[in-house]
Amino acid sequence: MHTNIIGDLPGYSIVWFHRNGIANILSLANVKNKHKVTYDSSNGNPFVVHKQDGSTRIFKQSSHGL
Questions:
Q1: pLDDT tens for residues 6-65?
Q2: Domain segments of the chain as ranges
Q3: What is the dihedral of CA 18, 9, 33, 21, to 10 degrees?
């Protein structure tokens, strides 16, 4: 898949986007360089990003396993 759509995600940086894409636009390798990330394989497989302001962003596994 190819895209030329680039966006600025506040608190992260530049991201690539495809309207029909199912994959996550964020790279765990890059996110962990900016924020603490935790993962719980025993409770629905969420990745939790702990932001600098104390808030969190939860990424849940889709029904397709992504």
A1: 888 887 788 888 888 876 678 888 889 989 999 999 988 999 999 989 999 999 888 877
A2: 27-66
A3: -10
| Start-end of H helices in the chain | 28-34
Nearest to 28 by CA among 8, 57, 7: 57
pLDDT for 24 equals: 62
pTM summary value? 0.71
CB proximity list for 23: less than 8 A, separation 6 or greater: 66
- Of 58, 54, 30, 26, nearest in space to 45 by CA: 58
